[in-house]
Design a protein that fits this description.
The chain is α+β, with helices and mostly antiparallel strands and about 425 residues long. The chain is about 35% helix and about 25% strand. It is built from 14 helices and 21 strands. It has helices at about 50-70, 110-120, 120-135, 140-145, 155-165, 165-175, 185-190, 200-205, 220-225, 250, 265-270, 330-335, 345-350, 390-415, and strands at about 5-15, 15-25, 30-35, 50, 75-85, 90, 100-105, 180, 200, 210, 215, 235, 255-260, 280-285, 285-295, 305-310, 315-325, 360, 380, 420-425, 430. Strand 1 (about 5-15) and strand 2 form a beta hairpin. Helix 3 runs antiparallel to helix 4. The relative contact order is 0.10. The mean pLDDT is about 90.
């Protein structure tokens, strides 16, 4: 017999998978379940997730993990959630009905909006005005504004696309009945039985609508692009009692939710990067290089993004992030083209040839991020010959991931004083040579 409330459920919602781990009070994993996230690609550049599928998959994973751990739901003292960032959805505040599928963070449907807005007079005026304020005040907040540009990874252009193309959203915005949420805030809304509409500060800081210096929604992008602020959730700390409890009808018992944090922030924290300059690298659907910048946000010249890593009460920790959107998807694409049967075969194929035979691959299915920052860049092979064979292509694709990681490192070295000797990578430390 287990004593009551001796277990914690950790839920991780990634781009490719949902996982649930059940930990006992000693920190040992007693139950684990995992299932794939079904990504929908209705047309080129569109990446979506059906909210009903996400919800059902989440419930199945949690129920299975509890079963594997051989416990009951009333043995769980609390739930913690880690989630992918910048995938968002709009729903009716009162009925809970979604207006559309989740629009994923790597969706590039709003590329034309990005290009148009970045070239607009109002953007140039805003940049110049911010630069003037920076020259007068030397406040890094205005320096950030002087370099501000829209990117596909930000929520802003995709939200503008929905507001323009979804008639129901446009109509109900006038009625003030539309609610906005990223995956974390939508799940908290669902898990709480529609009682909670909040977003943690680490998820909010990645949206492009957040002021990292004031730790609030930034009013100027809302005014600049005509986005109603009243549909956005309340920003809260990464841990605490403000996430409420699960509705008792979901798991048969009400369970407190004590943490919600963005995936890369959770990775930085879980990797033990507690000190200024501590660095971690995550390779998944995308590549994310994060550096703990202590109690100050980093103002970037080359596209490194200043984020809140986590906030607990009065403690605020920032991180700078360099990202490359196309990592795991590169090999998944190769698999769809039948260049390899199993992703695990890629290493053997790459080593089956002496070199890349002069073939290089540009991993830019969703543009190129820092330090190139070209949303119009396209993926492709360079240097193909009649003697090129499949393993050369696979090797070039794997090498392209390494090159992109190197680009991110160079950005950090060029912009910051950080000189890390170790990088936390997949629970190990890798020495930089």
């Amino acid at each position: 017999m287990h004593s009551k409330r001796n277990f914690i459920a950790a839920i991780d919602i990634g781009t490719s998978n949902i996982r649930c781990l059940i930990y006992d009070k000693t920190g040992k994993v007693k139950g684990l379940s995992k299932s794939s996230v079904k990504l929908l690609i209705p047309q080129p550049g569109f990446v979506e997730i059906a909210p009903e599928d996400l919800w059902e998959t989440l419930l199945d994973v949690v129920y299975e993990a509890v079963g594997v751990a051989c416990i009951k739901f009333d043995d769980i003292s609390s739930i913690g959630i880690s989630s992918q960032r910048n995938s968002f959805i709009l729903w009716d505040k009162y009925t809970g009905k979604s207006y559309h599928n989740f629009i994923a963070w790597n969706d590039i449907r709003a590329e034309s909006i990005v290009n148009k807005e970045n070239c607009s007079i109002k953007m140039k005026v805003f940049n110049l005005f911010s630069k003037g304020l920076y020259l007068i005040t030397r406040n890094p907040r205005f320096l950030l504004g002087s370099m501000y540009k829209l990117t596909n990874a930000q929520i802003t252009p995709r939200l503008l696309w929905v507001m323009k193309h979804n008639f129901q959203v446009a109509r109900d915005l006038l009625k003030n009945t539309v609610a906005f949420g990223t995956i974390d805030s939508w799940l908290l809304y669902k898990l709480s039985g529609k009682a909670i509409h909040v977003i943690d500060v680490s998820n909010a800081s990645a949206t492009g609508l957040f002021d990292p210096f004031l730790l609030t929604w930034s009013p100027w992008p809302f005014k600049l692009f005509g986005i109603p602020m009243n549909m956005f959730p309340k920003i809260v700390d990464s841990a605490g009692c403000h996430f409420g409890c699960t509705d008792a009808t979901i798991f048969g018992v009400s369970i407190p939710i004590h943490c919600s944090i963005a995936d890369q922030s959770a990775s930085l924290l879980g990797s033990g990067c507690f000190q200024w300059g501590d660095t971690k690298l995550t390779l998944g659907t995308g590549t994310f290089l994060n550096v703990n910048t202590g109690d100050k946000p980093h103002t970037s010249f080359n596209g490194l993004y200043p984020l809140v890593a986590w906030k607990f009460n009065k403690e605020v920790v920032y991180m700078a992030e360099g990202a490359s959107n196309d990592t795991g998807v590169v090999l998944q694409w190769a698999q769809r083209l039948r260049l390899l049967d199993d992703l695990k075969d890629s290493e053997h194929m790459a080593h089956s040839v002496k070199n890349n035979h002069g073939v290089y691959f540009v991993p830019a299915f969703s543009g190129l991020q820092a330090p190139i920052n070209d949303a119009t860049a396209a993926a492709g092979f360079i240097g193909l010959k009649l003697t090129t064979i499949g393993p050369h292509l696979i090797r070039a694709m794997l090498e392209s991931i390494v090159y992109r990681v190197f680009c991110l490192f160079r950005s950090f070295y060029d912009e910051t004083d950080f000189n890390p000797k170790f990088i936390r990578f997949l629970e190990k430390e890798t020495r930089i040579i």
